UniProtKB/TrEMBL annotation:
PROSITE patterns the UniProt entry points to: RADICAL_SAM
Entries under PANTHER family matching the protein: PQQA PEPTIDE CYCLASE, RADICAL SAM DOMAIN PROTEIN
Name of the protein: Radical SAM protein
Keyword Calcium (UniProt): no
Lineage: Bacteria, Bacillati, Actinomycetota, Actinomycetes, Kitasatosporales
Domain Radical SAM core: 46-274
One Pfam family it belongs to: Radical_SAM
Keyword Transcription: no
Keyword annotations: Iron, Iron-sulfur, Metal-binding, S-adenosyl-L-methionine
Amino acid sequence: MPDRTSAQPGTALGTLFVERNLDLVGKLYQRSVYPAALDVAGGKRLSSPLVVDLDPTTVCDLACPECISSQVLNHGQIGKDRIVRLAHELAESEVRAVILIGGGEPLLHRAIGEIIEVLHGAGIQLGLVTNGTQIHRHIDQLATKLSWVRVSVDAGSADTFQSFRPSRGKRSAFPQVIDNMRLLASRKQGRLGYSFLLMQRFDEDGKVTHSNYDEVEQAGLLAREIGCDYFEVKAMLDEDHYTVNQRAEDIELVETQIARLRELEDDAFHILYSSNWQAVRNSSDPVQPKDYHTCAVTELRTTVTPTGVFVCPYHRGNPKGRIGDISQMTFAEMWSTADTTVIDPSEDCRFLCARHATNQEIALLPERPAAGGLAEDFDPFI
């Protein structure tokens, strides 16, 4: 079994969490990551990616109108037997971290508990992005076997939650989600995050008809009271992943609330900006030019879904970004024949990409002296 020595759940909190775990470029200089990054910089293929984004299912129990994954929803799931075998295949590979995500809601897959057990037992670090409705069903495993859980809440009240994240029934799922987060916070060994995606709806004249912008502070206070480690503000993207610039008064509304929340920060609770909200608040151009034609990060991490394997989450469901299918072959067989260069970032990734700076850094590695001060492993989620 591969040796995996990454930090265990719960070890990278406080200032260390803020300064290191969010530094995607800095993560390249970990002892177990740097050799792989250097190989990729030199044009070599890896025996497996280091990180896998795994979509167990495309089924979701919410019906969010603004869901950016709407085009890939309700296309089935990876079969129970196949996904358990996949977990064992990843366990025998050089994969160091798996993010359970979607697509759909990962906790709705009936084999999710077994998947977590297999991967965690192999020393693979686990992260989870969830809507929070099913946390209570898997509380023991989520509390003890995951490095982090990020819940997409996007509201500070039941009414706003029901507007932007409606359940398929009549009642808002907000109380259940908050109760679940509170339960997990009381038992967690890893990190728990409250994710807030800023959303607005407009009428034909461009007037705002619905917004959650005025609930940022309310949601942040709730996140702290629940026991979350961080509260993250994110900007809404269009269906092609481009940021949507906002009116100055709306940015000011959000920033004023964030400033008040920052006064409550301490070693146990942090306010985070996503890179796309930073771009919006700085009125950056939604188009991010790239002067390279292959994405090095696609060799370091990949996205496995029920409908195929894709170069990254940005291209989930995009036929051009599809590099394989684990339904007909093992993960190792798929990866050995995958062409991770099918996407040209200069043409296909003109949106703001969180791994752009990582790609730029990898390109420079061969020109630099051998790194002498590599960091001990602290976060495999590169």
